[in-house]
Write a structure and sequence with these properties.
It comes from Rhizopus delemar. The chain crosses the membrane at residues 784-810. The structure is a single chain. The chain is α+β, with helices and mostly antiparallel strands. Helix content is 29%, strand content 24%. It has 5 domains: 38-163, FAS1 domain, CATH 2.30.180; 173-310, FAS1 domain (Roll), CATH 2.30.180.10; 314-414 and 428-453, FAS1 domain (Roll); 464-601, Roll (FAS1 domain); 614-696 and 715-779, FAS1 domain. Strands 2-1-7-6-5-4-3 form a 7-stranded mixed sheet. It is elongated.
Length: 825
Amino acid sequence: MFKKNWISFLFFFYLTYITSICSAGYLDGLFYKERPSLFDIIVTDKRFTKLASEIEKHDLTSQLKKVKAGTLFAPVNKAFDDIEQVTREQILYHLIPVAIKSGELWDGRLLGTEAYQDDIQQVLKVTKTSVMRDIIVGTGVESNRANVIEADIDASNGVLHTVDRLLSFPADLDTTLGLDKDLQDFNHWVDRASLNLKRAKGYTIFASKSVFGDQLNDVEKDYLDSNEGRHDLARVLNHQITPKLFYSGDLKEGESKIKTVEGSEDLDILVKGDTITVNGVKMVKSNLLSSNGVIHVLESPILPKNKDFLKLNARKALNAIHATRFIKLFDDHGLGGYLDDEQDEQITLLAPPNDALDEGNVPSNQMKAWLEYHIIRGRYRPSDLVNGQLLETESHNDLGETHHQRIPVTVTEQDPNIYGNNRLFIEKQSIQFGKSRVIKDPIETGEKTIIYPLARSLSLPRDLLSRLPVNLELSTFVASLYASGADETIERSHGITLFAPSNEAFGRLGLLAKHLLQLDSKEKLERVVKYHAVRDLYYENSTEEGEHQAETLINTQITLNKTQDGMFIRGSGAADGADRAVIGKVVKSDILSSNGVIHIIDRVQLPDALKISNRDLLSAEGTSNLLALLEHSHLTQKVLEGIDGDQPYTILAPSDRAFAKINLAHLKGDPEKLAKFAKLHIIPLALPPLDAGEIKHRWWFSSGEEDQGREIGYTGTEFPSLLSKDTVLVISKNVGGGYSVKIKGSSQDSAEIVDIGRSSSGGGVLEIDRVLVPPEEAQKAGLAWWQITLIVLGSLLGFAILAWVAYYMWQWYQSRRGGYHSLGD
């Protein structure tokens, strides 16, 4: 028993002694060889001579010797080939202050290094290939990475891994964006916004291949790409940047929020296992390392949730279409409020880009009105536009403060095969304002404004007097305007409607037009011209249906009537509301001018106060012989001087050329016969309802519309003459056009009516090409030409028949004489 206890005591003593010796290190030299330090390995291994040289050069020997437990990714000598300069921080970027074996270098692990910049510890990223399980370290950017070629070289103060490249010190955020091929677009917009990411300190960028994706339209992108849009572009980008450093591992499991540099909205972070989303967008690449931050790549861009983030107003939209000169003109002339949505009303802007803007020919005193002409009152989408519309603009120009200039709209059909896939032209065809066509899709900004980019700037309507001469069909009216002196009044008037009669309309006046254009009729002509100018604006496009009483420049009323058939104007002399012999119709409407609007009409209108007698009409031209005949017959006061309220007389006035064809010298001494000749040419009634167009144009007449309610046809209408009740005059319409007049029952040829003129009394003058002769004088004068012609033709026919009978008898006689007999005989 004692022996066993003694043996146990000795064994316990031995173990205690051996343990104390081992713990004191007395046996280390006997059983272990001392391991070299990281520094010893570098200076003794020929593979690292260049690394050792750089460590000594940058005075890092003492720092490396002081490492108690570290990891060094040691570049071999070949890694320094073609390296011109190595920095101190670049060497320290390869040194990790903890010892990490290769088995602990998992894919995506971040390793803090001994390198710092602006108090930011620089980090290495570990990548492991999926197949070969090679270990790669670097910044996460393809161009800055090194492969571990020998791992886990143990040192007394850590572990060394040999790498094949010398890693560059991490670049700044700005440069790092440019190094990654997936972030070229993001880098472009960062440069465009002039974001100084080089000086950022600890930023995190959530970038994507496309900065905007399909979340912004082309106009918004064009605006952000403009010089004026750089501020908003920076805001968009700064919404994707946080002012703190967040490596993927720093993002906590679950939901969290982080603030952005822009600051208006926080970013929603969701970490669920290995999946990280930012504002619901998946992170597809993490931890692209830079010296002053980190970059994470998202599947798509994260723009602000607030759809009105950009606040795209008219000013910004105009910048998008490069209409900066247009903006400056608006600002210079006090119209900038329209571009900033400060107006209460909705508007449509017609905007030419810089290369289409031409303001050089606009007088300085009209510049504001010209700019306002590009602003339409009201917001018109393409679907709201109709061909022929006249839209109100903000420009008053010379119309006066109560009226606004109009601009015409033209919408025409287009072939989609020509315009390809341009949605505007396929869906709404071609749109034109004035003479300028729309070149791009309209841009809607907010609820108040829509913008149409134009191919060229608009032109203000020219003044009324300059618009008239370019219409050749108005040459007679233009001559009347200046001849009467009414041009000055028209030019000074503001906000007027001018109903300009065409040349054909003046032709319908016939003798009256000739009278008005005489020098001594200047005052009458002035009243007629001014009677066609109304002191208000009546656009056919927008005038309501029904009758309108309008005041003219001679302070009298004229009636306008808008119907489904068009717009009509009625002065004095119309038998009723359908009397198209007098009532004018607008045949060309809405010719815009600076001080009003022009309509071309097909009838000249006469004011009530215009006094026109038959004498005035006969004095006009070519009927002086009849005028002298009437004066010799003492019918002057009764027939020639009648005006309003007097008995109307219609005079059939042979032209002076017609009188030259007949000898009336024998009548000069016989007043009674002279009176008969004169009275024969007078109808004691109002002017017959003849179509002046028929008289003027005859068979080639093509006015497009015949006067309604005509009573005189091809069979003729009878009228009494002043000569006697038994002497009846017949006026009939000719088959070839025009009218003729003859004495009923007379053998005399009918006379053609070649011109017409209406007097104030309701009567007038019908100019004819032949002098009418009383029946008894016609008999003395012998047979009419057509009677003589019939007699001659009858005589010739009789002689022909006799000759044929004689020839036939002679042939019969000869056959009998020769002994030939017909079998029938």
